[in-house]
Amino acid sequence: MQWHVACTEFRIPKVFAMLSGLFQSTTIPVLQEVVSFSQARQAVLAGNIANIDTPGYQARDLSVEDFQARLKQAIDDRDQPQVRSPGETALAPLMAEVAKSSRSILRHDMGNVDMESQVTEMVKNQMRHNLALTILTDQFRQMQLAISGRA
Question: Against a cut of 0.85, is the pTM above it?
Answer without folding.
Answer: no
